[in-house]
Design goal:
Radius of gyration of chain B: 22 Å
Helix content of chain A: 40-55%
Order of helices and strands of chain B: HEEHHEEEEEHEEE
Number of domains of chain A: 2
Structural class of chain B: alpha+beta
Number of helices of chain A: 13
Strand content of chain A: 15-25%
Structural class of chain A: alpha+beta
Largest sheet of chain A: 10 strands, mixed
Radius of gyration of chain A: 30 Å
Shape of chain A: elongated
Number of strands of chain A: 16
Largest sheet of chain B: 7 strands, mixed
Distance between the termini of chain B: 74 Å
Distance between the termini of chain A: 30 Å
Strand content of chain B: 25-35%
Order of helices and strands of chain A: HHEHEHEEHEEEEHEEEHEEHEEHEHHHH
Helix content of chain B: 10-25%
Oligomer: heterodimer
Number of helices of chain B: 4
């Protein structure tokens, strides 16, 4: 009988203890890989979200704050930009294109972005990829909406369906813009960015649905119908932020300075890559702390396994002695224990991976909608290295009970002391 | 006060209120830290430096002594020639001497204000594809300087690198 099947059989004899040990290791591996997965995917996702945009402009706050609310829809704007200011920026000679963004409304948990059709032309992600439509087209009518791939998938929407936007970030039914429903005009192809979880409408539409709203509520008795709104002046008064593309990169810093020193309004222009760098710098410490904690949890899992193996060792003195008696060498006994602990770690690692896979698969949609985070199902290269390290650690941990059993089996012989 | 003057004063007060408000913008000024803005497009490489007077010459007011005047002239010359800035050799970049703007060092500088040197170098590179790095020898040129924050905009997007003493290497490729 070879050693591995012997080890498996011996493990099967002690199912409950073994199962608990495997679960402990699985949980620690789950945490270790989970932290790494979130870290790597968050970085990749964030970095690929803005590409080809030279500057992001918003009200003066902090570069990270601006980038987070304007692009990733995390947090809120400190202030809006007036339409006049936006027109001034658009008119700057160095500016090639601008895309306004107006945030604030939602639909069943998904953010609504008021913008122009330029968004579909100029917004790029990943390696300068443009947005594309799986069906339909950009909005053309006032009450047209374009939805992201995730919105369509989760809410089972198709082109032509009617949706009602909610005022603010949702809540009681009274704050719905039910009087002015939107028709879905287009569905965007998946991008793996927060665009997947957004609903784009025109800036005029944002203005139109708020035409009869004052102070955060609809004015009773003064409702303006969807049709008569069409004849009103729907020039926006304010936007939340805007994306700016320049004619030449060489003017990036000059335009940035000009916007930052714009006298009429306190503005902030950031280079997306620089702001992202600041974000990584900020969260780098937290990331390292998380990694350290997850590494320690793996150590705890390992010592749990070690405790279990050592505790079992006493019960198994007779087993070891019999093994020696039937011709197994002391080295075989040592190898048996190392193989057992390696197998335990491998089962634990496998279970941990499966557990992570399940959690990622289940939590994928929630994370995309609520945190703008896209998690990959497949492990990254680093994760394979981490797994290998855990298994090697498990094998080394097995050397401790192995060494004890090796020594004892020489002393004990067949005589079991009480 | 005559009652008749009250409407007049009111009008005057309203008029005063309509005057445009005074603008008060102040950029950041961190002693020990210089900022470098690097942008490249095609054969052109533009590098703009802003360094506090505190780190370039050790004072931020019009020179009061001969030593200070000499230090100022020396700093101006160092910045004008720009020998501390070396783009990657293979790119074969050349730049004419730059114009140095010393803010806060002339006779009409606001007393107690800050002083900066601003200078922009415009390189033309024969082989821009080889331009993957620049060497920034600011720490050797200005021993009081502790840190250089480098913002970079290239075809690969924008990044930021921070040089702490005694680092000199700035990578332009990702």
């Amino acid at each position: 009988m070879n050693l591995i099947s012997l080890a498996l059989k011996s493990l099967r004899q002690r199912r409950t203890g073994v199962l608990l040990t495997v679960v402990t290791i699985a949980l620690s591996v789950f945490l270790l890989l989970g932290v790494e997965r979130v870290r790597v995917d968050a970085r990749r996702g964030f970095s690929s979200t803005v590409s080809g945009t030279d500057l992001v402009v918003g009200a003066r706050s902090g570069p990270v704050n601006l980038l987070l609310y304007a692009i990733f829809h995390v947090g809120e704007a400190t202030n809006n930009i007036t339409w006049k200011t936006y027109e001034d920026i658009r008119a700057m000679p160095e500016v090639s294109w601008t895309v306004p963004l107006s945030l604030g409304d939602s639909h069943r948990g998904f953010r609504v972005v008021g913008t122009t059709t330029d968004f579909f032309v100029h917004y790029h992600y990943g390696a300068k990829q443009a947005l594309s439509f799986t069906s339909g087209a950009p909005f053309a009518d006032l009450y047209d909406a374009v939805i992201g791939a995730e919105v369509a998938r989760q809410l089972h929407y198709n082109v032509g369906d009617t949706i009602v936007l909610a005022h603010g970030l949702g809540g009681p039914a009274t704050s719905l813009h039910a009087d002015k429903p939107f028709r879905i005009k287009g569905i965007l192809a998946p991008t793996g960015t927060p665009v997947d979880a957004t609903i784009a409408v025109s800036l005029e539409a944002i203005e139109a649905i708020h035409v009869d709203w004052r102070g955060g509520m609809r004015l009773p008795g003064l409702e303006v119908s969807a049709e008569s709104t069409r004849h009103m002046d729907l020039t926006p008064k304010a936007i939340t932020a805007c994306l700016v593309g320049l004619k030449s990169r060489l003017s990036s810093f000059a335009v940035q300075r000009a916007i930052n020193e714009y006298p009429e309004e306190a503005l902030l222009a950031v280079l997306p890559g620089v702001a992202l760098g600041e974000l990584w710098h900020l969260i780098g410490t937290a990331e390292n702390a998380l990694r350290a904690v997850s590494a320690m949890v793996v150590l705890v899992g390992m010592s749990g396994m070690l405790t279990a193996l050592l505790a079992m060792l006493n019960e198994r003195r007779r087993e070891m002695a019999i093994l020696r008696a039937v011709g197994a060498s002391a080295r075989t006994v040592f190898a048996l224990l190392v193989i057992e602990s390696t197998l335990l770690t491998m089962f634990g690692a496998l279970l941990g991976c499966l557990f992570l896979f399940a959690v990622v698969a289940i939590g994928h949609d929630y994370l995309l909608a609520n945190a703008g985070l896209v998690l990959e199902l497949a492990p990254s290269a680093t994760e394979w290295w981490l797994l290998a390290a855990v298994i090697v650690l498990g094998a080394f941990a097995g050397a401790i009970p192995g060494a004890i059993a090796y020594r004892r089996s020489l002393i004990d012989g067949l005589q079991v002391r009480q | 006060m005559n009652l008749r003057t009250v409407p007049f004063l009111l009008v005057l007060a309203l008029a005063a209120g309509r005057l445009p408000a005074e603008e008060r913008h102040l950029g950041p000024h961190v002693h020990g830290q210089a900022t470098l803005q690097v942008s490249s497009e095609g054969p052109t490489l533009v590098v703009a430096l802003s360094i506090p007077g505190h780190d370039a010459v050790g004072f931020e007011h019009p020179p009061a002594t001969t030593e200070q005047a000499q230090a100022l002239a020396k700093a101006r010359e160092t910045l004008r020639v720009g020998k501390w800035l070396v783009p990657a050799g293979g790119a074969n970049c050349t730049a004419p001497p730059a114009k140095v703007v010393a803010d806060g060092f002339d006779a009409n500088a606001k007393p107690g204000g800050h002083g900066d040197f601003d200078v922009t170098y415009q390189f033309t590179c024969a082989a821009p594809a080889q331009l993957d790095a620049i060497e920034v020898g600011l720490f050797a040129a200005f021993p009081a300087l502790q840190r250089v924050v480098v913002d970079i905009v290239t075809a690969n997007g924008a990044t930021q690198q921070v040089l702490d003493r005694p680092m000199t290497h700035v990578t332009l490729s990702p």
